[in-house]
Amino acid sequence: MIADFNLHASILGLNSAGLIKGTPYPGTFMLDRQGRVTQRFFEDFYRERITASTILMKVGTASAPVEAAKISAGHIEITTYPSDAVIAPGNRFALAIHVTPAPHVHVYAPGAQSYRIVKLDIAQQPYLRILPMAYPPSETYFFKPLKERVPVYQKPFTLLQEAVLEVSPEAIKALAERTELKLSGTLEYQACDDQQCFNPASAPLSWTFKLTPNITERITTPR
After folding, report:
1. Is residue 139 within 8 Å of 151, Cβ to Cβ?
2. pTM for the model
3. How far is CA 145 from CA 103, 115, 199, in A?
4. Under 8 Å CB-to-CB from 204, ≥6 apart: which residues?
5. What would the pLDDT profile of 69-85 be if each residue is shown by its tens digit?
6. Which of 106, 117, 162, 196 has the greatest number of beta carbons closer than 10 A?
7. How many H helices and E strands in the chain?
């Protein structure tokens, strides 16, 4: 549910360093109830567009828009869902992985040495580009026996993995006959409690999207 934000899209008649004059590059602004801009998102390529659901996930104002999958793995609970149920070539969408460690358990965040940090590995597919993972802030855990300080996640947290379904002519042709896209991956992690560390583990994950054709013609309505 959107409480304090309204979504507005603006097509900017700007170009990158003046190299492609006249090419519109879209931007999205988030406004509060007073009409003040609170956040903005701009595209690097005019044919690739971030979906509205992905923007809402990035700013933390949306609940799961589609059916979520829940998995009980060793020492953690996982809830995962995509930003959109339907995608098209050129869409920039996201996968949310919400992780809840068991009581008194932590998993390791980026920067931890000698431990397996939590990360998502997506199986490669043609015409799918995986973007860098967005990690939430971690906290420092002090392990007294080893006098060790490491970055960890002890409270529930959400990883946001963005991806782009490419919009090249080859991609559009290859995807034209398909009605769905299935993604698979694994969440890698290592859990520890206050007494011991457990073996590194992984949990299989999957997502299914419906595919829709890319719209290339302007839709007009009769007057």
Report:
1. yes
2. 0.79
3. 20, 16, 19
4. 184, 185, 186
5. 999 988 999 999 999 99
6. 106
7. 2, 17
